[in-house]
């Protein structure tokens, strides 16, 4: 048991024969930082049925005049997604953006090597910009630093952001977009540390390319921000050295370092699976340390913040994907059907991102539609997967300032982790709206958790609602024919008495408790 957890048990004693107890400690003057709404971002890759049949389906009665699926757009707006990364992912490392613009009948079909499919380019850059407007979201655009380099990235930026009177900006105008797209956030390639990546590089090669690409792009548009690729996941053998070397080359020229991580539960060990939010927490702290080490070495003034631009659960579809034939068009790839326990981990991961709001400024749930996604579609409709709900509630109500939330709770050991808190929790205070929102996951599979929180500094606050996501069956899923198997319900378990919040978090449950004046 960690020292701090020993203290926790002293502060919040419980007898084995009574309910497990925990405390959430907050102080309105102890702040982690303001939430950058972009941490509730998501991701659309030209992959599987994310675009084709997901957000775009020409000729479908479910689509609008531009071929955009209206049912999908409605669900995306429900999530209030602030930014969407596009067009990849592994796809971007072979992307010829020029193929994806101009009259559709002239766009070439190409073999797409990252996912072994045919890309017909019926949906491309300009369509995505139009779709993003309708979805009320910003764009995080990635450039190809795999098979291409700074020149093509510069041309793409000119096409997107230059006002007019030049070759590529006039091309955009001729393609029907008189006004610049004004895309502010640019990823410098994707997972360039991965041997699977087209144009995979060593850290030094990538660091130099990222530096020069960012420098040239900022010469054209000084308003943009750029994201350098970090490791593809924490277990990469180059993790640590990669981040350090890359930043050593490009520290002054970029603004963010990326992190990617997916978790699976192939061993069917739920306590260990749910403990992965601790792994995510360690990953973030590690990358922050490396960024700050390079800063110290360089006597740097600015800080590099983090863009956790791919995160989710991903493993259900692996076996099916291995059997897929090559060179199909928009096949069913990476179609994970998420169950209830996946929603718990997604809820915990969102809490983890919020707890690092001081340094994590962007994050993308990967992905948004059909491909490892909260939203699924068929020819007849769209529905919400289990993970939709923690994502939606945290995106809508997790905006404000994160309080430096101390959680005192009992802990457990799992196969891969020690001292895992049964309780993941964070408080977000929205001073303007006078609201305080507590997100909490009770990871215990056996016991409810009695939780208290001293709220005397938040005089007059009352419990407005307590929303719970739980299910008797950890493997329950939502499907097109049974879309409401796992849905949130209201709870009456929270009350405030004498300035103290007390609540009960049911075993294996995700919770949102909203307090307001
Ligand atoms: O999101 C699916 C894939 O996962 C992305 O294309 C890649 O960047 C990552 O490995």
Write the layout of secondary structure elements.
Elements: H1 3-11, E1 20-25, E2 31-34, E3 41-43, H2 70-79, E4 83-86, E5 110-112, E6 117-119, H3 125-135, E7 138-143, H4 150-161, H5 167-174, E8 185-188, H6 203-220, E9 225-228, H7 241-250, E10 256-263, H8 270-274, H9 276-297, E11 305-313, H10 318-323, H11 340-355, E12 360-365, E13 375-378, E14 381-384, H12 388-397, E15 401-403, E16 406-408, E17 411-412, E18 420-421, E19 423-430, E20 435-442, E21 449-454, E22 462-470, E23 489-490, E24 495-497, E25 500-505, E26 509-516
Parallel strand pairs: 1-21, 3-4, 3-12, 4-7, 7-8, 8-9, 9-10, 10-11, 11-12
Antiparallel strand pairs: 1-16, 2-15, 5-6, 13-14, 15-19, 17-18, 19-20, 20-26, 21-25, 22-23, 22-26, 24-25
Helix pairs in contact: 4-5, 4-6, 6-7, 7-9, 9-11, 11-12
Order of the strands making up the biggest sheet: 3-4-7-8-9-10-11-12
Let me know the number of strands: 26
**Silhouette:** globular
Low-confidence parts lasting 5 or more residues at pLDDT below 50?
1-16
Bound molecules: alpha-L-arabinofuranose
Mean pLDDT level: 96
Report the β-strand fraction as a percent range.
15-25%
Termini Cα gap: 39 Å
The description of the largest β-sheet is:
8 strands, parallel, barrel
Task: Please state the structural category.
Answer: alpha/beta
Tally of alpha and pi helices: 12
Q: What level of helicity do the residues show?
A: 25-40%
Radius of gyration: 23 Å
